[in-house]
């Protein structure tokens, strides 16, 4: 069974500021991609949005639900959040260990729902370390931000 390989990235110009997200997905030798942005957002929101959009695309593609998924992110916030921290946040009523409300809770809840039932593994990749697919996602994020800054 072929593995679906996904790379995601998100970023901002300023934090908060205009931000972009992107993903690349390889399914059975075919590569698809998407990107977008928001005029006023944060880096973490864009990192989460990239993963959410990629998993929404997987769920909407026919015949992909049972395939193993390898999702690569250069965000420790995303990787550790979904694989380690989220269960604690849920048990603590969406509060951090320090008692504060979890930031970006609506995105975390959405991401958690999308991951349920998928044969999914998260892999951290060091950003800006010459991984070609990570670099391509980064370029797409920069293009999305530039388009927002131009007013398009």
Task: Provide key terms for this protein.
globular; 152 residues; alpha/beta; 42% helix
Describe the structure.
By secondary structure, the chain is α/β, with parallel strands linked by helices. The protein has a single domain (4-150), classed as Ribonuclease H-like superfamily/Ribonuclease H (Nucleotidyltransferase, domain 5). The chain is 42% helix and 28% strand. Strand 2 (17-27) and strand 3 (30-41) form a beta hairpin. The longest helix has 19 residues, at 132-150. The model has no long low-confidence stretch (mean pLDDT 93).
Largest sheet: number of strands, sense, barrel closure: 5 strands, mixed
Q: What portion of the residues fall into strands of 2 or more residues?
A: 25-35%
User: Ends: how far apart?
Assistant: 41 Å
Q: What is the CATH topology classification name?
A: Nucleotidyltransferase, domain 5
Give me a quick take on this structure:
The protein has helices spanning about 45-60, 75-90, 105-115, 130-150; strands spanning about 5-10, 15-25, 30-40, 70-75, 120-125. The protein is α/β, with parallel strands linked by helices.
Fold blueprint:
Blueprint: E1 4-12, E2 17-27, E3 30-41, H1 43-60, E4 69-73, H2 76-91, H3 105-115, E5 120-124, H4 132-150
Parallel strand pairs: 1-4, 4-5
Antiparallel strand pairs: 1-2, 2-3
Helix pairs in contact: 1-3
């Amino acid at each position: 069974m072929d593995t679906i390989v996904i790379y995601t990235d998100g970023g901002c110009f300023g934090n908060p500021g205009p931000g972009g997200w992107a993903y690349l997905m390889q399914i059975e030798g075919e590569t698809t991609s998407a990107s977008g942005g928001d005029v006023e957002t944060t880096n973490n929101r864009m990192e989460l949005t990239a993963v959410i959009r990629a998993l929404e695309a997987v769920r909407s593609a026919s015949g992909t639900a049972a395939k193993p998924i390898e999702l690569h992110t250069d965000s420790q916030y995303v990787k550790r959040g979904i694989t380690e921290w989220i269960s604690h946040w849920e048990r603590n009523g969406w509060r951090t260990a320090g008692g504060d409300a979890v930031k970006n809770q609506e995105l975390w809840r959405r991401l958690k729902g999308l991951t349920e039932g998928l044969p999914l593994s998260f892999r951290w990749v060091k950003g800006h370390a010459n991984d070609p697919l990570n670099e391509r996602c980064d370029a797409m994020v920069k293009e999305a931000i530039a388009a927002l800054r131009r007013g398009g």
